[in-house]
Predict the structure of Diguanylate cyclase.
Amino acid sequence: MYTFTQLVLRNIALAVCFNIAVMAIGSVFLSSNLAEKQTLFGQQLTTTVDNVDEQTLPQLSQLWLNSDTLSSLSITDSTSKAIVNQTSQLSALASLFAPTPTKISAPKSKLSINFQLNPTSSVNLMLVVFSVVLVLSLVLAIVSARVSISRYGNIVTQINQQIKIAFSDDSEITHQLAFDLPELEQGIKEIQSLLSGHLENTSTLENKAYVDPLTQIDNRTRFVQSFEAKDDNMEFGVLTITRCSELQTINQIHGYKEGDNYITQVANIIKNEISRIKGGAVFRLNSSDFACILPNVTIKAAETFADNLTNKFNDYQRASDLDSVGYTGLVAFTSDSPLGELLALADTGISVAQTKQKNAWYSQTDSSILESKSASYGNQSWRQEIDSVLENQRVTLLVQPIKPNSRNTKVYGEFLARFLNSSEEMLPTASFLAMAEKLDKIVEIDRMIIDKAFSLIKEKNLTDQQFGINISARSIHDEHFLIWLERRLLRDPAISSNLVFEITEYGLQQNIKTSKRFIDMVHRAGARITVERFGVGLTSFKFFRDLKPDFIKMDSTYTRDIDEDKNNQYFLRLMIDLAHRLSISVLAESVESQEEKFTLEKLFVDGCQGYYLGKPEKI
């Protein structure tokens, strides 16, 4: 569609072309008309000359020139004597249209006449006509442009109304306002269908990009957008982070389906409580963390919200027989508070809450803890709790069996450590180990667990059974720990020969040289090695051939729903074949159904572990 200026320019161009054509036709017509007039005037002139005497001719000649009838007149007698010889000056334009001078003879008077008509009046008339046509065409060009724009505007308005009506639900209004343009109606239907498809696709993509598929609440991306786009109505508020403390334990012991159910239940509890806060919103930041934004809420009101969460978590814990459900950190913010700082403060609040009673919350108001992580109150509280556990040996060991898939396969039961606080309540295992790693206490924790395992085996007289013990990556690369462990293993060879140390694939990759030294030492002492969470990294089998582990335990991402995943079946079959060629036994964890176990047996996995086969129990 043209703009008004474009339409005016187009119409003016057309008007100019039209005027040029009119002028060309008019010029031809004028020249023809003047030639015809000159012929007729010549006839009249011969008659006049024959009927008047020679003395009158100069007067008539002057009259014709003064009246612009003639531009030149010359009359001579038979002796070529000039009787009349008069000429008037023509304008340049008149000269262009002046007919060629005509020479005639008067039959009676025997006079010779040479004359030329004066075209000035005709040319002036033509100029007036051309000027009027030009002005009218220009006016018409502008008016028609305005009319066209108005018409286009009306059409666009009607199309806009038609489209709006077409997308409305009122079919009666559509019928009333629709105008008779079948092509447009068909086009609108096609656009409607296309837009509906695009809107559906956009909605689906937005849902995937901004909504957590499990809980159907907004994810971390939406959280960052929402927080950074705080409107003018939110001058202050409180940010809470709730960490689901038992997710890793539930996934390991009960399986991922129970873990998903646990997360969903926690999400529902938080959603129910946040609905009581005007403008409140909940987001899932990662697998175990939920964030809540409480706009224009004081810290005191937010603590009431946290109390309600704790009560609901306690109810859920009792109903589900969990060690805990979740811990919450609170931090107040203003409109100019940096999000990164708030998240760090809330995280330390969670660390403090985890050292209190189960499902506790903590309001973190001291921002100075950000200046030094080791000096933060949250870390210090954990340090005191970990030191207390180490000093009083408050650790208990559960055993989860690994079931062999054939009579000839020898496997073991895996020790799972649980830590207790001063009130003999279970601390969140994942958080405890994470803080021990962070505070450089993990090597001491590993020593305590190994000592506890030796004591328990002796106490229960279990020297004929085989057990697995998890060791952190930090410990296997610690020189003093290696010396201590070798002496400890050599002190009780009967027990050592039945121990299997589990190390993550990632932990071994951190330092190949020290990893090989650790494995060689363990083998010299008679114990064995399992590489767990295998398949997550990119370790080659040459690496395992050099290290010579006894078992590899496939990561749960390869064993979960293995009965339905053909790709994982192919990958596992390949890994198992290569491992067996190197005399390495292959174990599978997180086996949660009969179908998974049956599929793994067909793939010749040597042993399976999971809640379906046996849950962790006290010895």
The mean pLDDT is 84.
